[in-house]
Amino acid sequence: QDPTAAHYMFQDDPFLMPRNAANSRLFSLSKESGRNAAKYIIKQFPQYFDKTFAEPNIPCLMPETLTPQIEGLSEEALKERIHLRRVKDSVDLFDQLVQAGTPVSLETTNSLLDLLCFYGDGESTLEKEDLEEPGVNASEQEAPKREFQRGSQPSGSRWRENNNAERIFKIMPERNAHSYCTMIRGMVKHGASAKAYDMYIGLLNERHKADVHTFNALITAVPYLKERFLERWELAKVFLNHMAQQEVQPNLLTFNALLKTLRRCGGVGRNMALLVIKEMEALDIEPSLATYDHLLFIFYRGADLCPSGIISEVLGDVGKRSFTPQDPDDGMDFNISDNLLCLSLGEKCCDLKDIKLAYRLNKAMEKGDNWKFLDMDRLNAYWSKFFSLLCMMEQIDVVLKWYKEMSSSLFYPTPKNILDLLQALDAANHLEVIPSVWEDMKQLGFNRRQDLLEELLSLMSRERHPDEIQLAFAKCAEEIKAVHEQTRREQSLLEWTGSTLGHVALLFSRAGRTQEAWYVNMMERFQQISRIPTDQVMDEFLNCAKKTNCPDEAIKLVKLAASLGLPSSQRLKNRTEKEFELSEKQK
User: Fold this and answer.
1) Between 431 and 373, whose confidence is greater?
2) Region 153-157: what's the mean pLDDT?
3) Following DSSP, what letter does each residue of 534-558 receive, concatenated?
4) What pLDDT shows up at residue 303?
5) Is the pLDDT assigned to residue 238 strictly greater than 50?
6) Average pLDDT for 366-372
7) pLDDT at 148 over 60
8) Is the separation of the CB atoms in 460 and 507 below 8 Å?
9) What is the pLDDT of residues 320-341, one digit of tens each?
């Protein structure tokens, strides 16, 4: 892998190579927006895309036929509109068939219920289709899509009272288990948990059996049906007992739904979570990434972090496997999953300050295709946390090796990463690397960050270094001075602070650049912005003036100290008279 290469998605257009994480996010979202715009045009104007000139013609690369081909009032026309996900057209045609006395089969009516329950009685949109690809016939083999955001009622479309799905369900001459299951899953998906529970009671009264996906949805809805932690667990057990009575075999999503519910059961969840994992092992069901994520959340929730063997065991299991997506919470879509395992583990390794755990996590993340579970934003967040931990815990040579391999290839350093790196260089006394860090800061667009500039200048000016390093530091100071003086139309002027002025003056003075130290910073700037230079700045400048034999500059320094009313003015005057050969006029 080329450590200087950007992410593969940007390599089509070198002009759009991002400089930092913000650019990366903007460019990737722009690219996705372009795809959505193209889909919208094709959907809105299908008549312009009905010609296939490609040779050979590859159907999978051609736009889908999105306009109904069957005209008239028939069940076949209704099936076609359901297949094309035309919610309003499907409902209108169904009503017309009912009014005309044309019987609609139970299978077709169930397919219409599937469509209505999936979209929440609203029209299908590009965004929904991109986030979740439903089979219109929600069969038992399909995994249910995610119903809730953690810790809150589900966002998005809501289940309206007496909507088309409920109306059609009520007028159905006969209903089977599929009809009830579809309604229950739709109600849970769109936030009507209480109605879903009532519908489940109706299913039991009609002596139907629910499928495994319906039970999974009901278990997920438990936190919205009961308020007390123990009541939530008891209701979840009721659903599990019903599964056993109806001989419904639980699957991975069942246990993940149960663990997701236990996340919101406080201490009860911690007591029961490991029993759920043991039951999974007994049934020979392998956990997915979402399983481990739920488990870690239960045991490492909030700020109450304490050393535990669970995180080590989880990493041991994760490190042995290359995962495939089996649950929407596994993180294949960044708009659906909000707490991915790798990111979650990375945060906990940082909080526990355990570098060995972090290395184990990184090895597991790089195994097979596990890295694909993190989208670009979260991948950058993961590497950022990992690098911060390296700066805190590792030797500087190791830190710099990782930085060289990771920067701009695996992730774009954040301002905090740069600050952590500067502090690591300071702790290891490797300040000669600072000029190269400054070059990276310019590339990343951080050259106007006041906090980073203050830290950078403070480290460079704190003590004297060999002449070669001082010259490199002075060059950095010159560029920082130029940044302060830039006046672009779209950027506000970067204000000088007293400490920044002092640091730049020190760096110029130590490099023997007396004229720049005086005219650009001290005389003009200190008086203009009413800032007071430190005694160190004054002494260093006087030393520089002595070294370059510039008595005029020394006299200006004494005058400046006197005009600012500095206590050191008399001392500077005495030094000037003693260390310089002054003419009568200068005296």
Assistant:
1) 431
2) 52
3) -HHHHHHHHHHHHHTT-HHHHHHHH
4) 43
5) yes
6) 76
7) no
8) yes
9) 878 888 888 876 433 223 334 5
Half-sphere exposure of 513 (CA within 13 A, CB side): 21
Listed as own residue / partner, the contacts of 574-580 with beta carbons closer than 8 Å and 24 or more positions apart are 575/542, 576/542, 576/551, 579/542, 579/546, 580/545, 580/546, 580/551, 580/554
- What residues have CB less than 8 Å from 477, skipping those under 6 apart? 457, 460, 503, 504, 507, 508
- Would you mind telling me the total number of residues written for the chain in this entry? 587
CB-hemisphere CA count at 13 Å for 310? Answer: 20
Region 83-101: mean pLDDT is: 92
Alpha carbon distance 172, 523 (integer Å): 89
Q: What residues form DSSP beta bridges with 407?
A: 411
Decide if 407 contacts 20 (C-beta within 8 A). no
CB 146 within 8 A of CB 328: yes
Average pLDDT over residues 98-114: 93
Q: Could you give the CA distance from residue 240 to residue 265 in angstroms, rounded to a whole number?
A: 17
Q: Residue for token digits 């990375």? A: 346
The distance between the two most distant Cα atoms of the chain, rounded to a whole number of Å, is: 119
pTM: 0.73
Q: How many degrees, rounded to 5, is the angle at CA 439 between CA 434 and CA 444?
A: 120
Contacts of 506 (CB under 8 A, 6+ apart): 461, 536, 537, 540
Looking at residue 131, its amino acid is: L
Q: Is 502 helix (H, G, I), strand (E, B) or coil?
A: helix
Instruction: Give the number of other CB atoms < 10 A from CB of residue 291.
Output: 26
pLDDT at residue 297 in the model:
84
> What is the distance between the alpha carbons of residues 219 and 292, in angstroms, rounded to a whole number?
18
Q: How far apart are CA 149 and CA 223, in angstroms?
A: 12
Task: Give the CA dihedral 181, 184, 187, 193, nearest 10 degrees.
Answer: -160
Start-to-end CA distance of the chain, whole Å, equals 68
Residues 6 or more apart whose CB falls under 8 angstroms from that of 22 comprise 445
**Higher per-residue confidence, 322 vs 431:** 431
Cis preceding-peptide flag for 533 (omega within 30 of 0): no
Query: In which band, very low, low, confident or very high, does the pLDDT at 300 lie, cut at 50, 70 and 90?
Result: confident
